[in-house]
Amino acid sequence: MCGIIGVVQKRGDVAPFIHQALKRLEYRGYDSVGVTTIEKHKLYIKKDQGKVEEVHRKLDLDEMPGSIGIGHTRWATHGAPSMLNSHPHFDCKNEIAVVHNGVIENFMELRKELSAKGHKFRSETDTEIIPHLLEDYMKDGMDLVEAVKEVTKRIEGTYAIVVMSTKEEENKIVCTRDGNPLVIGRKENVSYVSSDIPAFLPMTNDMILLLDGEIACLTSDEVRIESLSDGSEIKRDSIEISWTADQAQKSGYPHFMLKEIHEQPDAIRNTLRLKEDIIKQAAKIIHSSDRVFMLAMGTSGHSALAGRHMFASIAGVLPTFELASDFSDTVYGSLTDRDCIIAITQSGETTDTITAVKYAKERGVKIVAISNVVGSSITRLADHTILTQAGPEIGVAATKTFMVQLTSLALIALALGELTGFTDLKSIETKRKCLERIPEIVSETISRNEELSRRLAGELYDKTSLLFLGRGVSIATAEEAALKLKEIAYNHAEAYSAGESKHGPIALVEDGFPVIFVAPNDKTRSRMIGNIMEMKARGASVVSVILKDDTELESLSKFVFTIPEDIEPEFSTMVFIVPLQLFSYYMALRKGYDPDMPRNLAKSVTVL
Ligand code: F6R
């Protein structure tokens, strides 16, 4: 949610690099873009509404002088997308430039106070109070680092801020954060700061985390990190990231989403290689807890829904799933230090999830995190982290990170099953073998369904509403399929339990109404047949995802996607979702939308 980049180097223009870095950060927001550089005590500014390449075509973001600069790609919170609301924002004299990710909650009162002092505001954003506050502090000679420290005492909310000034310190970038991510990179004679690693991945794989309550000053020669509370210097080792710059490229695919769907077999394989100890430790924490909650949002919530089934059927443990956004309003202070939370968040930065976890942690609850990002906020809060191995996911709609979350949950369920003894060891071994086969099965599922999903999109693209039905674990699959379609193709899509569908949603069905059944060969199958018959009797156009050679279900369906081989029922989401991911991708294409950058969305949602 908003991408930030700052670069300071010894010589040469930074603008072309900032332009490319913003493209790599665009998944965080893409309604407007801005770059500011400094050369000879003067700010150069280019910013406007639109995606990076649209703004570049208009303004040429590469042609800006200066070896220091900051850039921003925006997901609007305060103020509609427009040139004036685009970052960077400036003080009255255009001497201080600021980019910000987050929300300053007390900006109204600060704006009033600053306006009364004569400051002129040009935008409707909360961010703009920051350069004006800095201007106020710096007018009597305070330096940039000290002024930023003062600002942090005045502002409330969540933020990652990167600032620079034309004054005496024009070769310095200062940054600080509270609640929103910033990572720092170093390469000889260049320092980088960014919201996320892919921004500077082509230059370095080493990153230094900046944590809440810290401030960093970057020059081309060095990075100095200080504690905001007492000014003491903080020495922190860099972390080497295993991601490669190539992984953050489309590599011949037309979109990241399609590439990431195709990368799923490898992502699962790599996650299956996680050290056994890491999985066992998670299982131990869960096993020793009285109550287990799974918390997540969006697609990660659907992993939790599927994960519950895995835990229940393999280990006899049924966690409670709660949307992280509503957790503190639901548990009514009933948490104790005998409880445990499994927090699932691919980015590790989702504010809803982080806030819920902080709330629980204060009450002594143990936290197991499942995240795809090294050093992300959740990993620092958790007692134990499982780091999934999807590599960078750039497409806004989660696909391969969903798959690796399911993989980790399956691994934990198996380890937990061994601890509880709910399932005999031989069956656990059979299930483990099945899990190891899933990369191959996903691969073949992609091959046999890609063309079909394109064809089905051709038939259904103009349907205003679609229903996805499943039973048991397949409700999670149906939920995820409906979310994908809404997100990127903007069709109204609803997921329901097939059992529940006759208690209301069936009223929607009329001739040709598309109903998509997720119908694996598990114990729900015969009841699903009943539900298909009910829908068909009312004229529904039935699409089913079924096991190959299930001729009975095939004969009841107008269109089928098939899964090449039977798998253990708890893991079916990992395979049955694949044709439906492809279907939503081709629906978006058929309707002329960019599946990588759906409207109104951003990959990492860092507001409440
Ligand atoms: C859907 C999607 C979102 C995220 C949700 C949580 O395709 O990407 O629904 O799943 O915003 O994000 P994380 O997993 O980063 O907490």
Kindly list the characteristics that best describe this protein.
25 strands; 608 residues; Rossmann fold; globular; 7-stranded antiparallel beta sheet; Glutamine Phosphoribosylpyrophosphate, subunit 1, domain 1; 8-stranded antiparallel beta sheet; 38% helix; binds fructose -6-phosphate; 19 helices; 23% strand; alpha/beta
Architecture overview:
With about 600 residues, the chain is of the alpha/beta class. It folds into three domains: about 5-250, Aminohydrolase, N-terminal nucleophile (Ntn) domain (Glutamine Phosphoribosylpyrophosphate, subunit 1, domain 1, 4-Layer Sandwich); about 250-425, 3-Layer(aba) Sandwich (Rossmann fold); about 450-595, Glucose-6-phosphate isomerase like protein, domain 1 (Rossmann fold), CATH 3.40.50.10490. It has an eight-stranded antiparallel sheet with strand order 3-2-4-1-10-9-11-15, with helices on one face. Helix 8 packs across helix 13 and helix 14 packs parallel to helix 19. The mean pLDDT is about 95. The structure holds fructose -6-phosphate.
